[in-house]
Amino acid sequence: MRKNIAILCSGGDVSGMNPALKHFVEYALKNSLNPFFVYDGYEGLIDDKIDKASYCDVAGIINKGGTKIGSSRSRRFMQKKYRAIAKQNLDHHNIEMLVVLGGDGSFRGMDIFYKEHGVKFCGIPSTIDNDIAGTSYCLGVDTSLNIIRTAIDAIRDTASSFGRAFVIETMGRECGYLALVSALTSGAELCLIPEVPYNLEQYEESFKNQIAAGRKYFLAIVSEGIKEDVREIAQWFEEKVGIEARVTILGHMQRGGNPTVYDRLMAYKFVSHAIDGLLNEQHDSVICYNDGGFTHKSIQDVAFQKYQLDSELLCHLQDLYNV
Ligand SMILES: Nc1ncnc2c1ncn2[C@@H]1O[C@H](COP(=O)(O)OP(=O)(O)O)[C@@H](O)[C@H]1O
Ligand SMILES: O=P(O)(O)OC[C@H]1O[C@](O)(COP(=O)(O)O)[C@@H](O)[C@@H]1O
User: Fold this and answer.
1) Residue 293 contacts by C-beta under 8 Å, 6 or more apart in sequence?
2) Which residue ranges run through the membrane (predicted)?
3) Cα of 42 to ligand 1 centre, how many Å?
4) What is the mean pLDDT of each run of 10 residues along the chain (323 residues)?
5) Which string of b and e fits 228-238 if b means at least 16 CB within 10 Å?
């Protein structure tokens, strides 16, 4: 008898989830499995929003951001009694394997669910924050970086025309990855991230000298996880550096948009490895990507460790100020 396998999205949505759904249906059918969708993340698991999926459901979605099946953060799934209901719903549909697109919170939830009820699962790291330990890349971060790049390039147009400093805030929670990579690839003058302590005073003289030497504008990329408010950084530019300043908080535009080629391809590869793993005795793992290869890692190694920013990237941050 063909086995049933389901997929769900949990936590912040990312561009790349739809390409993953499309490949999930195709690859499941190719492996003689019946594919199912769980709508709205763990909330849908509890409310039995579970349906069989077919080729028709995934036609025309590969180029769409977000996720066709919805995502959520679920307070109820944190409680044992609701996880028991989720298990009953899966049993009702005869589903014994789950692919979960989410972040470390989602994986911790699934780990508990596996230990309580034995539902096999494979996590696919999916968050624009790129802050999951054990993998150098999370689905969606490439699209997000490209959206940020487009925004910063546009802001540069007005900054240079009007002679202003712009303080641009990126998402990322406690992780500075989005801000750091964006600063390096957009030619920003300042980058502030939670991982690296800073003192604005140390840039004052250099920035004033640059203005005296002809610099007309500044771009500062700031991660949402730093202690200071972005408006205070703008105020510092005005009062201490002596240049008019504006703030742009990029917000949720960073989570949407047409998935890049890289995110589409990675969605494809992640899903293939996730299903292969589930069919080959990987029952409680996350599929991770490092140095060009994929490996299944334990929840302990992924969801209970702190993500460390790549040391080479951090060196490049120092280079930003040593020119
Ligand atoms: N310790 C836990 N026990 C059960 N469920 C959890 C646990 N931690 C997180 N979850 C579930 O995972 C969901 C997503 O987690 P969250 O941290 O918001 O996002 P992400 O997966 O992107 O890190 C939560 O809303 C909750 O339903
Ligand atoms: O959409 P919300 O609930 O306001 O959450 C915003 C947060 O979600 C993110 O966009 C993505 O975080 P997760 O992938 O961990 O869910 C963060 O960068 C941001 O701080």
Assistant:
1) none
2) none
3) 9
4) 96 98 98 98 98 98 98 98 98 97 97 97 98 97 98 98 98 98 97 96 96 98 97 98 98 98 98 98 96 96 94 89 61
5) eebeebbebbe
Q: Which residue owns the Cα nearest ligand 2 atom 3? A: 12
**176 CA to centre of ligand 2 in angstroms:** 13
Q: Looking at the annotation, which residues are catalytic?
A: 129
Nearest listed ligand to the Cα of residue 78: 1
Ligand 1 centroid to residue 274 C-alpha, Å: 20
Ligand 1 nearest atom to the CA of residue 104, by list position: 23
Q: Tokens representing 287?
A: 């599929």
Where b means 16+ CB within 10 Å and e means fewer, 178-195 reads bbbbbbbebebbbbbbbb
pTM assigned to the model: 0.96
Alpha-carbon distance of 292 to 285, in angstroms, equals 19
Ligand 2 atom nearest to CA at 14: 14
Q: For residue 8, which ligand has an atom nearest its CA?
A: 1
For 318, the 3-state DSSP assignment is: helix
**Which residues have any ligand 1 atom within 6 Å of their CB?**
10-12, 42, 73-74, 77-78, 102-106, 108-109, 112, 127
Which among 173, 153, 140 has a CA at the least distance from the CA of 257?
Answer: 140
Instruction: Report all structural domains of the chain as residue ranges with CATH numbers, in order of start.
Output: 3-140+259-306 (3.40.50.450), 142-255 (3.40.50.460)
Cβ(281)–Cβ(296) under 8 Å? no
